[in-house]
Automatic annotation (TrEMBL):
Recorded family membership: Belongs to the prefoldin subunit beta family.
Superkingdom in the source lineage: Eukaryota
PANTHER family with a match to the protein in the record: PREFOLDIN SUBUNIT 6
GO cellular component, one term: cytoplasm
Name of the protein: Probable prefoldin subunit 6
BP GO annotations: chaperone-mediated protein complex assembly; protein folding
The protein's assembly and partners: Heterohexamer of two PFD-alpha type and four PFD-beta type subunits.
Species: Pogonomyrmex barbatus (red harvester ant)
Lineage, uppermost ranks: Eukaryota, Metazoa, Ecdysozoa, Arthropoda, Hexapoda
InterPro entries from the UniProt entry: PFD_beta-like (IPR002777), Prefoldin (IPR009053)
Coiled coil ranges: 2-53, 94-121
Keywords: Chaperone, Coiled coil
Length: 129
């Protein structure tokens, strides 16, 4: 009985570690997206300051290519919208993983209690023998 509960406890702990690993990966992804969004917000502010006659260049590989100001603004807006949708997706995933973590911790708590009770019963039975 004690060994069976211990084995279940180990499996549930492994599952918890896996969920935590997924959560940390999502958190890292979110931080990266947040940084990209902030960078694009700064670019948009800079583009908004420019006048139509100003030159805008886009870095493509090792080459700077002249780009239309309107097109540059459109590209930044599209990129920001994409990043925002990715942030929402990652936030939703993190929320789901949060719930899974809570559930998994509850399962482990219950198994730990059952394990302790089984150990007490086993020691009581040994002392009676």
């Amino acid at each position: 009985m004690v060994e069976e509960i211990q084995k279940k406890l180990q499996n549930e702990a492994d599952t918890l570690r896996q969920i935590q690993k997924e959560y940390n990966k999502a958190l890292s992804q979110r931080q990266q997206l947040d940084g990209q969004l902030n960078e694009n917000i700064m670019v948009k502010k800079e583009l908004d300051v420019l006048k139509e006659e100003n030159d805008v260049f886009k870095l493509i590989g090792p080459v700077l290519v002249k780009q239309d100001l309107y097109e540059a603004k459109q590209n930044v807006d599209k990129r920001m919208n994409y990043i925002k949708s990715e942030l929402k997706r990652v936030d939703d995933m993190m929320s789901t993983l949060d719930k899974k973590l809570d559930t998994q911790r509850d399962v482990i708590d219950k198994l730990q209690q059952a394990f302790q009770q089984a150990q007490i019963k086993a020691s009581i039975n040994q002392s009676k023998s």
